[in-house]
TrEMBL record:
GO molecular function: G protein-coupled receptor activity
Source superkingdom: Eukaryota
Compartment annotation: Membrane
TM regions (residue ranges): 6-26, 33-54, 66-86, 106-127, 133-154, 174-198
SUPFAM superfamilies per UniProt: Family A G protein-coupled receptor-like
InterPro entries assigned: GPCR_Rhodpsn, GPCR_Rhodpsn_7TM
Classification via Pfam families: 7tm_1 (PF00001)
Organism: Sparus aurata (Gilthead sea bream)
Protein name (record): Mas-related G-protein coupled receptor member X1-like
Length: 262
C-alpha cells in the first residue's frame, strides 16, 4: 500500500498541477471561470498531500489529524462532482435560468458552503458512536445520494438535447463530462461505500477499496480533457477512423476468401 500510494501521489500531483494550470489558461482564453472544477482539483491536491503521511504514520496524533483532513477533502470532492454535474445539466435543461440567474457570485457562495459544511458533516460523523449500526446506514445513505443525482442529470441532459439551442460541440462536451463524473463515482467511490455500509472487513478487499478511493483524484484530472474545445470531436473522429479501418480490413478479408473460393 505504501508503494502504491507513493506511485499514485507522484503521478497525481503532477497531473493535478498540470490540470490546474491548464484550466487557468482556459479561463484567460475563453473568459469562462470553471469554479467548481478548480475547487475539485484543489480538493484533489489536498488528498494527494495527505496520502503519504497516512501511510508513514510517523505520529499517532498527527496521523489522526491528517486522516480527518483527508476525509473532509474526499467529501468536498464528491460535493463538487455533484455541483459540476448540476451545472452541466442546467446549461442544457434550463439555459435561460442558467444564463440570467447562475452568476459567479452564486457559484462562489455555493463553493464556500461546500467547504464549510463538509468539515461539519465529518465532525458529526466522527462524534457519533462507531459501533452503532444506524450510524453506518445514515452515513452510507448520505454518500449514496449523489448516484441517483448523477443518473438524473445525465438522463435529463440527454432527454433535453433535441430541444436545446446549445452548439453541437458544447453538447458533446457536456455529455462527456457527465458520463465521466458518473463513471468516476460508480467505479471508484461506490465499492468503498457499499463495503462501508456492509460493515465487513477483509484485508485484501479493504485495501483494494482504499486504492479505488485514492485513484479518484487521479481520474478527476481528465475533466480538463472534456473541457477543451474540439477534444471530443477528435476522440470521436479517431474512433470512427478505427472502425472504418476495421470494416475495410474485414471487407478485404471477405473479398479475398470469396476470390480464393471461386
Amino acid at each position: 500500500m505504501f508503494v502504491v500510494s507513493c506511485i499514485i501521489t507522484a503521478i497525481g500531483l503532477l497531473l493535478t498541477l498540470m490540470a490546474i494550470c491548464a484550466v487557468c489558461s482556459l479561463v484567460r482564453k475563453d473568459h469562462v471561470v470553471p469554479i467548481y472544477v478548480i475547487n475539485l482539483l484543489i480538493s484533489d491536491l489536498i488528498q494527494f498531500c495527505c496520502m503519504i503521511p497516512l501511510e508513514t504514520k510517523f505520529d499517532e496524533m498527527m496521523t489522526e489529524i491528517v486522516f480527518h483532513i483527508y476525509l473532509i477533502s474526499v467529501i468536498v470532492s464528491i460535493c463538487f462532482m455533484v455541483c459540476i454535474a448540476l451545472e452541466r445539466y442546467l446549461v442544457i435543461a434550463c439555459p435561460l435560468w442558467y444564463r440570467f440567474r447562475h452568476t459567479i457570485k452564486f457559484s462562489v457562495v455555493l463553493c464556500v458552503m461546500v467547504w464549510v459544511l463538509s468539515p461539519v458533516l465529518c465532525a458529526l460523523t466522527l462524534w457519533v458512536p462507531q459501533d452503532d449500526y444506524i450510524t453506518y446506514i445514515i452515513m452510507g445513505t448520505f454518500l449514496l445520494l449523489p448516484l441517483p443525482l448523477f443518473i438524473f442529470f445525465l438522463g435529463g441532459t440527454i432527454r433535453a438535447l433535441s430541444t436545446s439551442r446549445v452548439p453541437s460541440d458544447e453538447k458533446r462536451r457536456i455529455v462527456g463530462i457527465l458520463v465521466l463524473v458518473l463513471l468516476i463515482y460508480t467505479l471508484l467511490f461506490l465499492p468503498s461505500i457499499i463495503w462501508f455500509m456492509a460493515e465487513m472487513y477483509h484485508h485484501h478487499l479493504t485495501h483494494l477499496a482504499d486504492v479505488f478511493v485514492q485513484l479518484s483524484p487521479l481520474a478527476d484530472s481528465f475533466l480538463y480533457v472534456f473541457m477543451r474545445k474540439g477534444t471530443i470531436d477528435k476522440l470521436l473522429a479517431s474512433v470512427c477512423c478505427c472502425r472504418m479501418d476495421s470494416n475495410d480490413s474485414s471487407r478485404m478479408d471477405s473479398s479475398d476468401i470469396t476470390s480464393s473460393s471461386v
